[in-house]
Amino acid sequence: MTIRQLFSRLRRDDTGATAIEFALLSPALILMMIGVLQVGMAMQNYNALRGLSADVARYTMVQYQTGNTISNSQIETWAENHALGAPYLLHQDRVNAVVTTPGTQRVTGATELQLVISYQMDSFLGFAGIEFPFITYTRPIFLLDED
């Protein structure tokens, strides 16, 4: 067989074309599948923050109604500790709760607190240089002043 016949035969042979096309496209497909997983985790973490903020508001209101005086820092500590357990299972070093008392109260006869919970997500796409930002959820808590 001559070299010319060998090159002619190789030019017509397409048996490895599928493997080469897969090798070229598979990194993009795998990156997209991991991205879908990352978005799902982001939605779960956001819903965890929403549920956690509702639990913190409920805890604060119950404590207030039973006559227990709790400070903003105690509420923050309770929120961060509650985030570690089920059903939230957030990582301790990445969750942060801040409770402030706004200068202007919006509802007469009530004390308003502002709860801000933020969380740094896990990033499955760190190897591709894609990092996820903090997820933040803000919620007002109104405590009725009974005189």
From TrEMBL:
Source domain of life is: Bacteria
Q: Which residues form the TadE-like domain?
A: 16-58
Name-wise, this protein is TadE-like domain-containing protein
Which sequence ranges are marked TM in the entry?
20-43
Give the UniProt keywords, A-Z: Membrane, Transmembrane, Transmembrane helix
> Which Pfam families has this protein been placed in?
TadE
Q: Does the keyword Transmembrane helix apply?
A: yes
Species in which this protein is naturally found: Erythrobacter westpacificensis
